[in-house]
Write a structure and sequence with these properties.
flat, single chain, 7-stranded mixed sheet, alpha+beta, 8-stranded antiparallel sheet
Length: 389
């Protein structure tokens, strides 16, 4: 038995720029039990998957750190003027001014960036419908639920297209396909001294500087009235990157660059805007690796918490036959899911450290045991204060 829509009610329009709808759906206790059991099956996949992500992430972080350390130890900085054939296949660092034979060009709008531009980015925003949903669920006696969802629709400028077919109320809120799309354009024939830089490698340079085309319009408007936009109208702007110098670390391949395969397992190819020493580029890459490691750790912990929550969800549904009891059990299952997550996740990370970094892992484990032992000894030696008779 599945949930069903009891009614759909339209609320007052939102000042002419949007509207809101409410829908009330009910779900029986038996339907909720079925959904909770399906969630339990999903949890049996999510829990080992999140554990694998945490374990794999530690190995990935170690491999990347070792590869960068290896690269920093063998890289050689070479002059940019002319590739030396004796460096073929070796890890080299080259830095200097860049040249190109042809600037990037947006032919659709006849937009040309200033001289020295390596990358031109077109950003296309469309005026379109967006949906926001806010739901409130009430548990009824007997374990069934009633959910009141308010869907608010308004028009905004958004890059890309919001899929209006997934809206709860798609009628009257249809978003057309945009007539133009965001796109990147790259300079041709880019050289760093005597070295060539491939077009695919230029995407590593961010286009962050706003461009004002020659006609003085920083933003192009595609539509009838910019002061009164309609759904489907476009707002187009450009950004560009024109570094005077570029620094590259990679394998010398002929008169160009390619990924360098390290013994640790990674393939190194680093390109940055500006004149940077090799040590600074490797340090920045190490910092990026640490940031990514913490992001993936957070993702793994959140997925594990969701998995434990789904695994314990049937207990709350069973207790919801009496709503106050279900609220207490629900709070308890969420707390238990948090405890299990913060017990299991650090253990998995610690095991990964023992597997990938046995010496460091053993040292940390020994330090933790010594700290725990020291605290215990101090507590035993603390003088007991005699209580007055």
């Amino acid at each position: 038995m599945s949930g069903s829509d009891d009614d759909t009610i339209r609320i007052t329009p939102d000042g002419g720029d949007g509207d809101s709808f409410t829908s009330t759906t009910s779900q029986s206790w038996f339907s909720r039990i079925g959904g909770a059991l399906m969630g339990l099956l999903f949890a049996l996949l999510l829990l080992p998957g999140s554990g694998w992500l945490l374990f794999w992430n530690e190995g990935r972080a170690v491999q990347t750190a070792r590869s960068l350390t290896e690269g920093a130890g063998i890289v050689r900085s070479v002059p940019a003027e002319r590739p030396d054939a004796t460096n073929e296949g070796k890890l080299v660092h080259v830095s200097g001014p860049v040249r190109m034979t042809q600037l990037p060009f947006d032919a659709d709008f006849d937009v040309k960036p200033p001289n020295g531009t390596l990358r031109l980015a077109r950003i296309v925003e469309m005026y379109q419908w967006v949906e926001e949903n806010h739901s409130e669920t009430r548990t009824r006696m007997g374990g069934g639920t009633e959910t009141v969802t308010t869907s608010t629709y308004r028009r905004e400028w958004r890059e890309g297209r919001v899929d209006s077919s997934r809206f709860r109320q798609p009628n009257g809120h249809e978003n057309p396909q945009p007539r133009q799309s965001s796109r990147n354009f790259f300079a041709q024939g880019v050289t760093l001294g005597g070295f060539r830089i491939a077009e695919s490698q230029l995407s590593a340079i961010p286009a962050a500087e706003p461009l004002t085309p020659a006609n003085g319009e920083a933003t192009r408007y595609v539509g009838n009235d910019a002061n009164n936009p309609r759904v489907g109208d476009l707002r187009i702007s450009w950004r560009y990157a024109h570094p005077e110098t570029v620094s590259v670390i990679g394998a010398q391949v002929g008169d160009g660059f390619g990924p360098y395969a390290t013994n640790a397992g990674d393939r190194l190819l680093i390109l940055r805007a500006g004149s940077l020493p090799a040590a600074a580029m490797f340090q920045q890459a190490q910092d990026d690796n640490k940031l990514l490691t913490w992001i993936l750790r957070a993702v793994g912990v959140v997925l594990m918490f969701i998995g434990w929550s789904l695994l314990l969800a049937p207990l709350k549904v069973l207790a919801d036959v009496i709503p106050p009891l279900g609220a207490v059990v629900g709070f308890g299952t969420m707390a238990l899911a948090g405890v299990l997550t913060f017990l299991a996740a650090p253990v998995i990370i610690a095991v990964a450290w023992l597997f990938y970094r046995p010496l460091v892992g053993i040292a940390i484990l020994a330090a933790g045991m010594a700290l725990a032992y020291g605290i215990t000894r101090l507590r035993r030696r603390r003088p007991q204060v005699e209580k007055p008779a």
